[in-house]
Design a protein that fits this description.
Number of domains: 3
Order of helices and strands: HEEEEHHHHEEEEEEHHH
Largest sheet: 2 strands, antiparallel
Length: 262
């Protein structure tokens, strides 16, 4: 085997290891890159992501795609991506994450990594199979999975487009966040949870996701101007304003703002 052939084989093996589409071999024996990652770009816009329920697609690709569109904190996304390095790429099993190692690799604090795992468990994306020992070298074992209710989670659409504010009509990137159910004391009151048992441990403030401007107790700039504009439209129609709308109605506003159904 020539040096070039050996290099090419390693490239293909690395892509398969990462769950990416393999390179295509050109006539000169080298490889070109038609699709280096699960999200393929082409033409004048971004192509649609594949169906996350399609089990013919490698698990690692579906996991990374869900992580990419999930509207949670960047630290949670990073923990989810790193978790895949500790799991079987074909089914997400046998995941033995070392908090110490993940902290060192990510640059996140111990508390932030643990919080990321708590969110993944709350979303039903990680199931703890067994607890490790308290001594060095024995981590908890997890099963990573695509939850059955993933479509009810707050997500970007399959084309990853900007949202349209229902109040002012501007395009914007939603304010990704999550609130753990066991840490609600002293937090802004959430008004949205997934519509299924898996994921009940995590909640969101839907207004922060659905409107381009929203007040926050954490110091994030914003106001209720867009919500007030939306309320005016509702009053003109004789319909309930935002604060009178129930959770299902608020989720409907979120999906309308997203405008890119799966």
């Amino acid at each position: 085997m020539s040096s070039r052939e050996g290099t090419n084989r390693k490239v293909v093996e690395h892509q398969a290891h990462r769950g990416w589409t393999p390179y295509e071999e050109a006539s000169d024996g080298y490889f070109v890159m038609p699709a280096l990652c699960p999200r393929a770009y082409g033409g004048s816009g971004v192509k649609r992501l594949f169906d996350l329920d399609n089990e013919e697609i490698p698990f690692i690709r579906r996991w990374n795609a869900l992580t990419a569109v999930l509207l949670v904190e960047p630290s949670v996304k990073l923990v989810a991506r790193l978790a895949m390095d500790f799991a079987d790429f074909d089914d997400g099993a046998s995941c033995f994450p070392s908090i110490e190692m993940m902290t060192r690799e990510s640059g996140l604090s111990d508390r932030t990594v643990r919080n990321g795992w708590a969110v993944l468990r709350g979303l039903g994306m990680a199931v703890r199979v067994s607890r490790g020992g308290s001594y060095r070298g024995h981590a908890d074992e997890y099963q990573l999975q695509i939850p059955d209710n993933w479509r009810t989670l707050p997500l970007l659409g399959p084309h990853r487009r900007k949202f349209t504010c229902p109040g002012c009509g501007n395009l914007f990137n939603p304010d990704a966040h999550s609130i753990l159910a066991d840490r609600l004391k002293g937090s802004a009151k959430p008004d949205g949870r997934p519509r299924a048992k898996a994921g009940d441990g995590v909640a969101w403030i839907i207004g922060r996701l659905a409107f381009c401007s929203w007040p926050s107790s954490t110091g994030r700039k914003g106001s209720r101007a867009c919500t007030d504009a939306w309320d005016v439209k509702r009053r003109e129609k004789g319909e309930k304003v935002w604060d009178q709308t129930d959770a299902s109605g608020k989720w409907a506003v979120f999906w309308e703002a997203q405008g890119d159904p799966w």
